């Protein structure tokens, strides 16, 4: 992605995950927004001029953070919402035995004491592989990789979901299911 596309992607993440009202948008319970309204917001922010530009960012986003509806009239963030208006319905899915979470050293004491919590988001995000989790952890400091005993969590009746982009979601990960990798 070039710089303009990165700026547009960050704008889309903000308005489709966290602050739709800042762009004059309303999201439905599944996170969908009217594409025309999103394009108008991007035009006002001088980040895009057309639905084609927004669609290109949806298409080329390396983490597949966004989706267009089958009719092309709506757009949403796939996961990562913090707004109370959105409550995506995901099917429960059996995860692999191990999943991974990347974080930074400064977060480690709290995580080891209290487990992984979603913070402002609706779910804890977990990666299917070590490399992806490590990349996530590197975004904000010295990375730390945590192994999540997802199979044991499932056996303990904790529920997992998998977003369309492959990110694994759960409400929380108690410390007993975490191990430094």
Write out key terms for the chains shown:
2 domains; single chain; 6 helices; 31% helix; Arc Repressor Mutant, subunit A; alpha+beta; 181 residues; globular; ADP-ribosylation fold; three-stranded antiparallel beta sheet
Please give the CATH architecture of the largest domain.
Answer: Alpha-Beta Barrel
Q: CA-to-CA gap between the ends? A: 31 Å
CATH-assigned fold name of the largest domain: ADP-ribosylation fold
Low-confidence stretches: none
CATH class of the largest domain: Alpha Beta
Find the structural class using helix and strand composition.
alpha+beta
How would you summarize what this structure contains?
The protein is of the alpha+beta class.
Describe this structure in words.
The chain is of the alpha+beta class. The chain folds into 2 domains: 3-77, Arc Repressor Mutant, subunit A (Orthogonal Bundle); 99-180, ADP-ribosylation fold (Alpha-Beta Barrel), CATH 3.20.170. The chain is 31% helix and 18% strand. It has 6 helices and 9 strands; from the N terminus they run H-E-H-H-E-E-E-H-E-H-E-H-E-E-E. It has helices at 3-18, 35-44, 51-60, 108-114, 130-137, 150-155, and strands at residues 33-34, 66-68, 74-77, 99-104, 124-126, 143-148, 161-162, 168-170, 178-180. It has a 3-stranded antiparallel beta sheet. Strands 4-6-9 form a 3-stranded antiparallel beta sheet. A 3-stranded antiparallel beta sheet has the order 5-8-7, with no helix packed on it. This is Probable RNA 2'-phosphotransferase. Its EC number is 2.7.1.-. Removes the 2'-phosphate from RNA via an intermediate in which the phosphate is ADP-ribosylated by NAD followed by a presumed transesterification to release the RNA and generate ADP-ribose 1''-2''-cyclic phosphate (APPR>P). May function as an ADP-ribosylase.
């Amino acid at each position: 992605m070039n710089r303009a596309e990165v700026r547009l992607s960050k704008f889309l993440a903000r308005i489709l995950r966290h602050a739709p009202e800042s762009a004059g948008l309303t999201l439905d319970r599944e996170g969908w927004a009217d594409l025309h309204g999103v394009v108008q917001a991007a035009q006002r922010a001088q980040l895009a001029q057309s639905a084609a530009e927004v669609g290109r960012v949806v298409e080329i986003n390396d983490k597949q953070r966004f989706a267009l509806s089958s009719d092309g009239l709506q757009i949403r963030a796939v996961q990562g919402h913090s707004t109370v208006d959105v409550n995506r319905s995901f099917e429960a899915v059996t995860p692999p035995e191990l999943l991974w979470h990347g974080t930074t050293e400064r977060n480690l004491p709290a995580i080891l004491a209290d487990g992984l919590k979603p913070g402002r988001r609706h779910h804890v995000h977990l990666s299917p592989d070590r490399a992806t989790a490590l990349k996530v952890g590197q975004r904000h400091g010295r990375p730390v990789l945590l192994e999540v005993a997802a199979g044991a969590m499932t056996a303990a009746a904790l529920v997992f979901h998998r977003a369309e982009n492959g990110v694994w979601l759960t409400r929380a990960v108690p410390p007993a299911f975490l191990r430094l990798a």
